[in-house]
Design brief:
The complex is a heterodimer.
Chain A: H1 12-26, E1 30-35, H2 38-42, H3 45-61, E2 70-75, E3 87-90, E4 94-96, H4 104-112, E5 122-123, E6 129-130, H5 137-140, H6 158-163, H7 168-176, H8 179-189, H9 201-210, E7 217-222, H10 231-238, H11 240-254, E8 258-263, H12 268-283, E9 299-304, H13 314-322, E10 345-349, H14 350-362, H15 364-368, E11 378-385, E12 391-396, H16 401-408, E13 418-423, E14 430-432, H17 442-447, E15 456-461, H18 466-480, H19 486-503, H20 510-525, H21 529-544, H22 546-554, E16 568-571, H23 581-585, E17 591-592, E18 600-601, H24 611-615, E19 623-626, H25 629-642
Parallel strand pairs in A: 1-2, 7-8, 7-10, 8-9, 11-15
Antiparallel strand pairs in A: 1-3, 3-4, 5-6, 11-12, 13-14, 13-15, 16-19, 17-18
Helix pairs in contact in A: 3-4, 7-11, 7-14, 8-9, 8-11, 10-11, 10-12, 11-14, 18-19, 18-21, 19-20, 19-21, 20-21
Chain B: H1 8-13, E1 20-24, E2 27-31, H2 37-43, E3 67-72, E4 75-80, E5 91-93, H3 97-113, H4 118-126, H5 146-154, E6 160-163, E7 170-173, H6 188-192
Parallel strand pairs in B: 1-5
Antiparallel strand pairs in B: 1-2, 3-4, 3-5, 6-7
Helix pairs in contact in B: 3-4
The chains are: A alpha/beta, B alpha+beta.
Chain lengths: 645, 213
């Protein structure tokens, strides 16, 4: 498919010509697109790909009719990571889930004969198959604008991107729109930064554009460090040119000739993908001197992060690109005015840039027709945790959490009860069941005490302890804080001490007040947003799940039975048959007992690994986990009234 | 644009260009363009506590004791006065209710970190804090970075640096064990340390060598 004879694209006509030509080449072909996102790769989608290629070659050798009509494509992430490896066969959109290498002969055979492999299709709750990708509930309730192209193109082929209309927005901007017009379009679109803060992108561009100085920079922030969030990685891996196109348009608007893409160290495939995209774009004259004969010069470098979460903060990121320690600085003079090497610098998130080509192609009005008045467009969330369908979902802003979790996510795993959803990564908070009908946009989540963040969404069920969850995030932040300012460094250190006390059963009544005081300090006195938002998880867990803190502190009980120091395993002497299986499996020899006699656990030795409980045969079920929860349930109300809670 | 924040050094040498008027605690205060709020306040005789500030070094904003409340376009904001540039007509409050509350919490945190500093002692007394509720740290360095920044910016030696991050951040000679390779032994970092215990960790001879204070 390489169309290398056309080099140095000079404008929209060239792009349209190439696109038409490539499309005509693909006409009548059957495309097997295999997801090669990191999630599917982990499910060995590369093996599936290899096997399918092998199988197809066999068929071509056998000179089967139609076999040479099949094209195999390795694409980026399709989003439905729970059921990987995923495969979609175009043009029919037949979607296969959980494909294994041994399914390859069936798939190739049926593709040649234009048939369907029934066993690989999605089965709904009644057991009937759904063939088309868009009819599967996980996809049906989404509105995929940014993510749509991921499943259609080979991320390593610039031709594929051009075929689906890529770089036409850039051509339009360079040839038909003066920078001011691009800016006003972006401002009108009401696009807000997808990295977390939700700052108006147009305003940011305007400040950088109007800032004094000839040298300006544009930067892509791909330092996606939130636990459980991976949408930026999937865009960079699956559709790097869309980010690049957005970046070039931003540079043109602002008047920057140099750009950086800051990708975190942990994303080797994203780095490879974007570096390849940059190289291809240079070959086609879409980067470098005099882009598309417009007189505009722009080039970009990839900077790999060194693994610090805090480097996702704009001023810390710029310090890191300069070669300094990634520490935030005081930003009373904005980075838009004095950023990288003290020059005006515009920094946006990966997803923000990926939105730009769509806005230029379709107009601000079109963009604003999706979403809420305050937050327009769509947002990609990474839906993870105790939900049936984990993966990346793109929905219009304003969709309720309930729709995302139940309609798209398919509800809670194992029929358990929903407890909370944690949004926005470590900077966000938890949202309880009572607020599930909250429309998801920047402002509503903020009002609930959480934030959109970059779009992480961790679903938790009744078996999660909220005190433990808060402890996890505080520990994460204490490790990842840069340690520069006292409220953040020392405040997080003290928060960690308090949480460790509480989950070890040494919590005091006064600790709740201490937590609250530290939250006030962190929110108001921290230097950057890492400290400023660190309190969200503490405040929201305290607000919505205070009784769990109460149980830990007053009753030394963990209602979800997660905090190890507060739980114990006991063998019921009535039920135990003395089979000694638990005695053998105990790693610390804490269980005593002779064959045919009831066993007992020495609590002073027990490390609460739970191996005995798993080992105990179901017919006996002699081992039970307890935490004093029953006592707690009974007396809860009286005591809480007593303590003035 | 970096030069918008001038340091006292240059502010002193030029006969101060007092072309900005702002209000600190409702008192009209003149300031030179490029002065920070802290500098303007100190010149007007208003004390704002600060531990990581030094007139010869660029503002760092780490100790957070110098926080003040500013009111701009009807909106209140908390900023570090050591770095916030003076603006015409700006309303600054160094002791507002909010600032007092936050600084009090901060002082309590410092009392767990390093209670022996005179500024911390005075503030604790002022806020009526006798004992801290927090876990006491056995760590004498408050990581204000004065030694590191003084060595880099004033002495231009870069013999000291930070290592680690988050709660395990430390000050160390570079490389840790052979500091004299870069250190010119000016000992000025000792005088600048707000805790007064800086050198002993590194076995510098001016103070008696003890592992415990």
């Amino acid at each position: 498919m390489s169309e290398k004879e056309i080099k140095k694209i000079s404008g929209l006509e060239d792009l349209v010509k190439i696109s038409e030509k490539l499309k005509s080449l693909m006409e009548g072909k059957t495309v097997i697109s295999i997801c090669s996102g990191t999630g599917c790769k982990a499910y060995s989608s590369d093996d599936v790909h290899g096997k399918i290629v092998e199988e197809l070659q066999k068929k071509i050798k056998e000179s089967k009719t139609n076999a040479d009509n099949i094209v195999i494509k390795k694409t980026g992430c399709h989003g439905y990571c729970e059921r990987g490896p995923i495969m979609v066969i175009h043009p029919g959109q037949t979607c296969y889930l959980g494909v294994k290498p041994e399914d390859a002969p069936d798939i190739v055979e049926s593709a040649i004969n234009e048939k369907v492999v029934e066993k690989l299709l999605y089965k709904d709750e009644n057991g009937s198959s759904i063939e088309k990708e868009n009819d599967i509930p996980f996809y049906k309730h989404q509105q995929r604008i940014i993510f749509d192209c991921n499943a259609k193109i080979d991320p390593y082929s610039i031709d594929d991107y051009i075929m689906i209309g890529g770089y036409q927005a850039l051509a339009k901007a360079l040839k038909e729109m003066p920078p001011d017009k691009v800016l006003s379009e972006v401002k009108k679109s009401n696009l807000r930064g997808r990295g977390g803060g939700g700052f108006a992108t147009g305003l940011k561009w305007e400040t950088t554009k109007n800032a004094a100085g000839d040298t300006k920079y544009v930067i892509v922030n791909a330092d996606e460090g939130d636990p459980g969030a991976y949408m930026d990685r999937s865009i960079l891996e699956g559709n790097p040119h869309s980010v690049l196109e957005g970046l070039i348009i931003a540079a043109y608007t602002i008047g920057a000739n140099h750009g950086y893409i800051y990708v975190r160290q942990e994303y080797p495939f994203a780095v490879k993908s974007i570096e390849n995209a940059i190289e291809n774009a240079r070959e086609y004259g879409l980067l470098g001197k005099n882009i598309m004969n417009s007189g505009f010069d722009f080039d970009v470098k990839v900077h790999r992060g060194a693994g610090a979460f805090v480097s996702g903060e704009s001023s810390a990121l710029m310090a890191a690109v300069e070669g300094n320690v990634g520490e935030p600085r005081l930003k009373y003079i904005h980075t838009a005015v004095s950023g990288l090497w003290s020059k005006p610098t515009n920094l946006n998130n990966v997803e923000t840039y990926a939105n730009i080509p769509h806005i230029i192609n379709n107009g601000a009005e079109w963009f604003r027709s999706t979403g809420t008045p305050g937050s327009s467009g769509t947002k990609i969330f990474s839906l993870v945790g105790k939900v049936n369908n984990t993966g990346l979902v793109e929905v219009p802003m304003g969709v309720t959490l309930r729709d995302i979790i139940y309609k798209i996510g398919g509800g809670i795993k194992g029929g358990k009860k929903f407890k909370a959803v944690q949004t926005g990564g470590p900077s966000g908070g938890v949202i309880p069941e009572a607020l599930l009908d909250l429309p998801v946009d920047f402002d509503e989540l903020y009002k609930a005490g959480s934030m959109m963040g970059s779009g992480g969404m961790i679903v938790m069920d009744e078996s999660d302890c909220m005190v433990n969850v808060a402890h996890y995030f505080i520990k994460f932040l204490a490790d990842e804080s840069c340690g520069k300012c006292v409220p953040c460094r020392e405040g997080l250190r003290q928060l960690l001490y308090i949480y460790e006390r509480i989950i070890n059963g040494q919590g005091q009544v006064e600790d709740l007040k201490l937590l609250e005081d530290l939250c006030i300090l962190l929110e108001n006195a921290s230097l950057c947003a890492l400290g400023g938002t660190a309190q969200n998880i503490v405040v929201t867990t305290l607000k919505y799940f205070r009784q769990e803190y109460g149980a830990h502190i007053y009753y030394k009980a963990c209602p979800a039975m997660v905090c190890k120091p507060l739980i114990r395993y006991e063998i019921s002497s009535d039920k135990c048959s003395g089979c000694t299986r638990c005695v053998k499996v105990c790693p610390v020899d804490a269980i005593s007992g002779k064959p045919k006699e009831a066993h007992a656990i020495d609590q002073s030795l027990c490390i609460k690994c739970g191996a005995c409980m798993e080992e105990c045969p179901e017919k006996y079920s002699a081992i039970a986990k307890s935490t004093g929860i029953f006592e707690y349930e009974k007396e809860k109300e009286a005591v809480f009234a007593d303590k003035g809670q | 644009m970096e030069s918008t924040i001038k340091h006292e050094e240059s502010a002193k040498s030029a006969v101060i260009n007092k072309n900005i008027n702002l209000f600190i605690d409702n008192k009209a205060v003149p300031a030179g363009s490029g002065d920070t709020l802290l500098l303007a306040a100190r010149k007007a005789g208003i004390h704002i506590p600060a531990l990581c500030y030094h007139e010869k070094i660029k503002p760092h904003g780490a100790c957070r004791l110098c926080i003040v409340e500013i009111v701009k376009k009807g909106k209140s904001r908390i900023v570090a006065s050591c770095a916030y540039p003076a603006e015409e007509g700006l309303q600054v409050f160094t002791e507002s209710l909010k600032i007092t509350e936050i600084r009090k919490h901060l002082v309590e945190l410092y009392m767990a970190l390093f209670p022996y500093n005179e500024e911390i002692k005075a503030l604790a007394k002022k806020y009526g804090l006798k004992e801290t509720r927090y876990h006491k740290e056995n760590n004498y360095c408050i990581l204000c970075g004065l030694c590191v920044r003084y060595c880099a910016e004033v002495k231009k030696e870069n013999a000291i640096g930070f290592i680690g991050r988050g709660t395990s951040k430390k000050v160390a000679f570079i490389p840790d064990s052979s500091y004299f390779k870069y250190c010119v032994n000016c000992m000025e970092c000792m005088d600048i340390c707000p805790t007064g215990v800086f050198p002993s960790n590194y076995g510098i001879e001016r103070l008696p060598q003890t592992s415990d204070f």
